Records
---
Amino acid sequence: MSENVCALYKKCGGCQMMNLPYDEQLKWKEKQVRILLDKYGRVSPIIGMDNPYHYRNKVQAAFKALRDGRVISGVYQSGTHRVVPVDACLLEDETADAIIVTIRSMLRSFKIQAYDEDSGRGILRHVLVKRGFTSGEVMVVLISAKPAFPSVNNFVKALREKHPEITTVILNVNPYETNLVLGPHERVLYGKGFIEDTLCGKVFRISAKSFYQINPVQTEILYGKAMEFAALTGQETVIDAYCGIGTIGLVASDKAARVIGVELNRDAVHDAIANCKRNAVKNARFYCGDAGDFMTAMAENGEKADVLFMDPPRAGSSPAFLQSTLTLTPKKIVYISCNPETQARDLAVLTKGGYKVRAVQPVDMFPHTHHVETVVLMTKTGRNG
Ligand code: SAH
């Protein structure tokens, strides 16, 4: 058994591996990567965390009213809409957890009801908290089923008195029957509507909806490896595909001639452009669109790129993306992945197209869960097939 097992380990389902000591978790993850990727290149030992607890800087809680009127908050049991009450989690940021408990304790006196999915009664569906690891800035997002939230300004004022560390509060309205936590509309109730955090020496703006790596300590290590693999000299044209809020591209921008980022999520692109200005980066451009379409257009226009960073979601890349990559023929590809299975599938296409895997580095971004992140360096071999 691990030295620090959570009482909710089985019920919640968030930590699939908490029954194993941390070093055994790491061995298991490294083995999974070897099984999938060893055939392409040598897999380096996984980089774990020194302190693998409370690393999650983004915490989300579902709220539910019980029959007796009490309100619980916590996580949905894996694959269900049953709320498992969670007040403190070994993975989550402790400030974020404390804020969620405070919000729950305030609901009754403010006559705010938790939303009930079956009857459609009530209002508060979820609370999302994001905390900047280095900045300490805290964003609270109240996700409401209806646009009218009773005495919301007084509620926010009282919450801020209890938690002065909160720097911004947002009301997000999600009236839909959906698995998505956030709805399309939001209103800033307090502060600037986003938080900032420093990563690899650059400042990033994080809004309610945009993706930001949830483990900042390991992200610096992951991006550090990605930069080491790219070994930029200042002359290169760099593509940051699936760029989110522009993190990888902006970190690379100091050592590249120019950076082109592409991302599907409009809010994230908006943040990437703001991040570019915020860091006075002059050689990066960010575009909103499907990475596959974008790469295809680049290939058709006869454009060239020297280094491609790609960091797709769990589903991996699309065939169009991979084919246009082969047409663009960057000298190096640095492929960051949170799913070694789809990465292995994509590596099969790229190695067949003339790339060779030079390094495979697993990094443990999600201790106690079965997720594993890898960064792979590929270079062009000069032959196809
Ligand atoms: N590189 C960023 C984000 C990686 S997460 C970081 O490290 O922070 C993957 C990103 O891919 C998400 O921001 C998601 O919105 C985006 N994405 C998903 N499908 C996409 C597609 N087809 N084209 C472009 N971006 C996509």
---
Amino acid sequence: MTAILTAPGGRVTLKQGGGGRAMRTLIEKLFVRDFATMPLHNPNLSVGVGAMDDGAAIRIGDEWLVITTDSHVIHPIFFPGGDIGRLSICGTVNDLAMMGATTVLGLTCSVILEEGFALDSLEAIQRSMIAACREAGAPVVTGDTKVMGKRELDGIVINTCGIGLTRTLVRDNGLSLGDRIIVTGSIAEHGLAVMAKRHEIGIEGNLVSDVAPLNDLVASVLAGAPGAVTAMKDPTRGGVSSALHEMASKSGVGILIDERAIPVTAAVRAVGELLGIDPLHVANEGKALIGVRADAADRVLEILRAHPLGRHAAIIGTCVAERPGGVILNTGFGKRLLAEPEGEPLPRIC
Ligand code: MG
């Protein structure tokens, strides 16, 4: 195999884990190129690694088995609103939900620990995982534990994998002209809460991570407005901007966003300004971007707002023919093209 990424001696950079263009290039040019073209073909594979969706889908009878996996390296491991345990359950449950698999058949949990890690912290993380599993109705069914030597790892890494079944497979590439874009609540709380904790920034008001399992919220939409949802993605690393760019380019439409319609709390606005970071580029862990048919948008909004996790849902945009693959921001004073982030501005955010 020939080198495809860099000259000999090149090294991985933090940006390549940042959820933006740099990470996508690494994944596309290395992993996807090889895995997606392997001759071991599964004829029932509906969504594979090449789709770079939230997970994979395998057709089984009249349903799809959805599989997803995620590793968690967040720093600090305890932050306002959650910890690495809650995050590792919710992140995987949400990736399943984004593909329509709102009933979780099982999760795996693989924990890698550094020698010397405090056992009371480990117990707190475990309790938090149990609580998140209960909230999501998602059982951990198997796992693995490894310990590495001191300084061979920074504390703890948790990998979870999830499997679910769905009759309504939702992709991130299904947007059509005229579809509306809904965000299920106020943005950027996870990334900025973690960053504020990491840098010990004192803040006025309440800035806590939004980390939460979205499967019940999504299930209520899919059941209450059948056929309304055309695409879905959770705006994690790279934030709303990265997720919208991905949805737009995969769907071949432009997305026109009304900036004033995006729910942003005063605390997020303040910390974003302090750190010089646009909330549109910051990770969420309890929000979804949902593409819906225009005639069903009000109904979906009503369903979302009736759910505790969707109270601040808002219609923020429309799919347009202009600038396919691009995101256009209507600021109220004019329109500008929103740049796709190179990577999440905040490393180790999930
Ligand atoms: Mg996702």
